[in-house]
Structure formats: C-alpha cells, structure tokens
C-alpha cells in the first residue's frame, strides 16, 4: 500500500459519487469513472469529499464506494478518503476502515465550532493523536467550514503533528497564504509539506507560481488540471496559461453555489463517464437555460482547444 507523504505532487482529482436516477449508488459507474480519471493522467484520487456528496451517504455506503474505488485501481494510484465527522470517534472508525482497505491517507476538515487559533491547533493535534500513524490532509476551506486557519497556526500544526503531510488549500483569496507557508519551510522553520489546491482549479497557475505542488479538486475535464500542472512543472508557463484559459469559462461555471456540481455531473454523464448526472436528494436541478449555457460553453471550449492544438 502506498502511503501519502509530504512529497505528494500533481493532481489528486476529487471524485464525484455516481447515483442512479432513483438515488441509489451506481457502483458500475464508479468503475468507469475510475478508469476515466486514470486515463486522464491524474496522480491520485480523493473520494468522499464535499463535492462527492459524502454527507448524503450512509456509513455503509461510504465504505462501499471506497472499497469499489480501491478494488478498481488495484494499487496503481493512491487514494485519499475524506473522513471528516462531528466527533473524533466516527472519524477514527472510518479512517481505520479505509486504511485497512488500502487507502493512502485521509482528509479532515475542521468542525464549524472552531472559533480561535488555539481551538484550531488543538483540534488538529487531537486528530493527529486519534489517527496514530495514519497520514492526513488538513482541509482548509473556510468558504464552507467558516473556519479560518491562519499560516502561523498551520505552521504550528506542521511542527507538532507529524502525520499532517498535506494541506488542501482552498482559502479565497489565498495566494498570500501559500507564499507565507512556503517561506516558513524555505527558512527551515517547518517541514515542507505538500500543498494541493482546490476551488475547481480557478487559480491553479497562480497557485503553482506561489509554490503549490498541484491540485486536489474536481472538474469535468481533469485533463485541464493535469496539463496545467505538467506544463508548469516543465517550465512551459505560457503553454500552461493557454491550456488554462481554454477551459476557464466552463471551470468558472462549475463554481456556482448550488448548481455547480449538477453541471459537472451533467458533463461527466454526457462524456460517458457516469450513467446519470443525478445528485442525491436534496438536490438542485439544471434548468433548460442552464443546460443551454453548458452546451454553449462546451462548444466554445472545443473550438478553442482545436485552435491551440490541445
């Protein structure tokens, strides 16, 4: 089993959870989805994230999805599993189960009850102790958790919690945070941990320029993130920017609150990755006008990709 480390790089795509139209899990589509992500060139998968509709799954369903993904990959790519929970006991239980199945690590977001720097530090210190030697990702997503964790607190966690090996950076605006964290590790004040970024890749070129190691987010065209990261690492910054710009209008559309995930699943279904674009209830639905928007964006994107030879 490959375990997650501070050296993780590239694109760890946030996987959707496929459902039938009636809301049942669609495990056959899980297989196709895994094959699709692997063929797109991603470096890892993250399952049971917020945009994987994890809160809508039962504990048993969560385990079924993880087992199916791990079985399909058969160790070819590392898998990170979201195990965030209101308390440490259910988090620890799920983490133990998925690591036993072969996951590479787990991801933990802070509970909304955290209000102070000391509370944020104390929470992740407790997470580190509860998880033992299981490597974990600190998910920093204040736009949804309403918990802001400033760089000095993250530095403190990195120093004192050795199994915190990655930051999933989704602060917005957050480029200065990446700069501050990299400055600390460059000076030798902290370990250098992996930083992968979210927010649908909307700031990926700039984040890479500030020292991020890649992306941990979802998009109906993961090829964009893979291409941008690879070109940036190779030093082809103009090509990275060109690829990013070609996909940006659709990526921006996906970031709408409410219907963004519905748009992503609509395109994935259209691409044959999943059988249905259904979300589990309660769910938003795309209107005819929304679908027309997406189709127009897809047409313009295809045209631009052809123009730049991508």
Structural class by secondary-structure content: alpha/beta
Quaternary structure of the protein:
single chain
So what's the CATH class? Alpha Beta
Series of secondary-structure elements, N-terminal to C-terminal: EHEHEHEHEHHEHEHEHHHH
Biggest sheet: strand arrangement: 1-2-3-4-5-6-7-8
Mean pLDDT: 96
The CATH architecture comes to Alpha-Beta Barrel
Estimate the strand proportion.
5-15%
Protein name: Dihydrodipicolinate synthase family protein
GO cellular component, one term: cytosol
Family: Belongs to the DapA family.
GO molecular function, one term: 4-hydroxy-tetrahydrodipicolinate synthase activity
Concise account of the structure shown:
The protein has 310 residues and is an alpha/beta fold. It is built from twelve helices and eight strands.
Characterization of this structure:
- With 310 residues, the chain is an alpha/beta fold.
- It has one domain: Aldolase class I (TIM Barrel, Alpha-Beta Barrel), CATH 3.20.20.70.
- 49% of the residues lie in helices and 11% in strands.
- The chain has an eight-stranded parallel beta barrel with strand order 1-2-3-4-5-6-7-8, surrounded by six helices.
- Strand 4, helix 4 (117-131) and strand 5 (136-140) form a beta-alpha-beta unit.
- Helix 1 packs across helix 2 and helix 6 crosses helix 7 (175-186).
- The model has no long low-confidence stretch (mean pLDDT 96).
């Amino acid at each position: 089993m490959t375990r997650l480390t501070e050296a993780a790089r590239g694109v760890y795509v946030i996987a959707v959870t496929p459902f039938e139209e009636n809301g049942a899990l669609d495990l056959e589509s899980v297989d196709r989805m895994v094959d699709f992500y692997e063929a797109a060139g991603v470096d890892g998968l993250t399952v049971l994230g917020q945009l994987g509709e994890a809160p809508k799954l039962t504990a048993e369903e969560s385990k079924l999805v993880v087992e199916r993904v791990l079985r399909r990959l058969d160790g070819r790519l590392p898998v990170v599993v979201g195990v965030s929970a209101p308390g440490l006991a259910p988090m620890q239980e799920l983490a133990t189960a998925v690591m036993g199945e072969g996951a590479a690590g787990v991801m933990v977001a802070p509970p909304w009850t955290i209000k102070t720097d000391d509370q944020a530090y104390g929470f992740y210190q407790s997470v580190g102790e509860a998880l033992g030697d299981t490597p974990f990702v600190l998910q920093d997503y204040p736009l949804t958790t309403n918990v802001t964790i400033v760089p000095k607190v993250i530095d403190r966690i990195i120093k004192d919690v050795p199994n915190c090996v990655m930051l999933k950076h989704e602060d917005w605006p957050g480029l200065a945070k990446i700069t501050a964290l990299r400055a600390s590790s460059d000076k030798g004040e902290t370990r250098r941990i992996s930083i992968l970024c979210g927010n649908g890749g909307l700031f990926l070129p700039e984040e890479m320029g500030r020292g991020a190691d890649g992306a941990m987010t979802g998009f109906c065209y993961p090829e964009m993130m893979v291409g941008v990261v690879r070109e940036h690492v190779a030093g082809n910054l103009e090509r990275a920017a060109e690829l990013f710009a070609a996909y940006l209008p659709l990526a921006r559309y996906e970031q709408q609150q409410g219907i963004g995930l519905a748009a992503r699943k609509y395109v994935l279904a259209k691409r044959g990755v999943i059988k249905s674009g259904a979300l589990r209830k309660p769910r938003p639905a795309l209107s005819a006008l929304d679908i027309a928007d997406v189709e127009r964006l897809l047409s313009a994107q295809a045209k631009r990709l052809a123009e730049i030879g991508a």
